[in-house]
Amino acid sequence: MIKKLHLQFNDIAIGIIWLFHLCGILGILYGDSQWFVGATPLNLLLSFLLLMITSRRSTKVFIIAIIAFLVGMVAEALGVNYGLIFGHYQYGEALGWKVAGVPWLIGVNWSILVICCSAIAADLAGNFYTKVLLGVGLMLLLDFVIEPIAPILDFWEFKGGVAPLQNYIGWLAIAMPLHIIYHGLKIELKGNFTHHLFLLQIIFFTILLLQINTLQNAL
Description:
Strand 2 and strand 3 form a beta hairpin. The protein has about 220 residues and is mostly helical. It has nine helices and four strands, in the order ααααβββααβααα. Helices cover about 70% and strands about 5% of the residues.
């Protein structure tokens, strides 16, 4: 019965994130764009909470979530304040409250991405190092898609308007040890909520990227 309820909640959680992301796409492109962009923190927080709940049977997930949050926040603070690791950039107001110039939800997003990408890599690859490289590659892929539209959404903007190569090297340098820790902890997640959440982020930002002219006019 407990296993059945867990699977049912997993399905409900997947349905919720699909609903929120699809509404976000339609709302940003064709509705009240400012309102839907402003709701980004709510969507991100909801996704994180559902991720933690659906992963609760593996307590080690909470350990990597905390580690990724702290490492991500420190790395981003060094970037924002000193131009280290990722280059020179500043965060906008769309992601909400900041600590040392970094929205605390960015730390949450680091946790989400490390867990989701590691879980997907664990299902697709067998070798430890292949899992690490695949997971890091998935994170870089998403960042590559987001970067061109981040300034338009008021998420963040690099000096000069374009993310430098340093940004991607920095992502590689910070993400890799986090993925090593994840797989070193031998975390095993049940269900495929992580797969859906990452896929939705790719779909969400790819559609916005393809509609970048519409997005610029709307905002």
